[in-house]
Amino acid sequence: MTLTDGLLLASAAFAAGVLNAIAGGGSFLTFPALVFTGVNPIVANATSAVAVSPGYLGSTLGMRDELARVPPHRLRMEAGIAAAGGVAGALLLLITPASAFRAIVPWLLLFATVVFMAGPRCVRWLAEHRGGVPGRSARTWGLLAVSVYGGYFNGGLGILLMALYTVTGESRIHTANALKNLNSLVLSLLSVATFALAGAIAWGPAVLMMAAATAGGYAGAHGARRLPAAAVRAVVIGTGIVMSAVFFWRG
């Protein structure tokens, strides 16, 4: 890793930490930065997951009061589902040929961008227009599917989880957000452990980016109240569109 590569990765991770603390979307920066410095796309995806993982712990600890109001058996059950999905998604990534994943990446980035762009509106619409609430089995299978996606490719995970909880009857927005943070943490930890055991993480860039992302998250948390949320979301969406276009162009 050259000095220039290190500066690029640290800058991308710091900015990702800021974005994740304010609006999400940090993986739109960390994953492309790793690929642009020559890291294999599958290793870059695994390393990016490591880089942004500290933020999930902070978010979960910050919502301990909301989680304390959820029945413990529900927390254990959903954490178990998220863990299984995270491992399954990570294993699916590891058996995906590098050439196939390289072809899928632009579509994953574009999908994550669209989810991020339309997510809050969809969540509000679901909250206002849902009819009969799906049963527990629908939430279970939905959580498993979203967790597999999160283990495979992290972009847009939070919005997908929020939409899932809304459509399956969780009317308390802060509880839904707390569950989203907890299950993101669990599936992230398990998928990262799977990547580590498979030797799919570039640890030099990962450690550098974790430190930079943590610093960025701290800065973002303190600056969140000073920045218009709409402006930050516009930056994330613009970044996602540009990154998708670049990856489509690169083939």
Automatic annotation (TrEMBL):
Record field: transmembrane: 79-98, 104-123, 143-165, 185-218, 230-249
Membrane topology designation: Multi-pass membrane protein
Pfam family, any one: TauE
Similarity remark: Belongs to the 4-toluene sulfonate uptake permease (TSUP) (TC 2.A.102) family.
Chief subcellular location: membrane
Stated name of the protein: Probable membrane transporter protein
Location relative to the cell: Cell membrane
Keyword Iron-sulfur: no
GO cellular component: plasma membrane
Highest rank taxon of the organism: Bacteria
Keyword Transmembrane helix attached: yes
Keywords: Cell membrane, Membrane, Transmembrane, Transmembrane helix, Transport
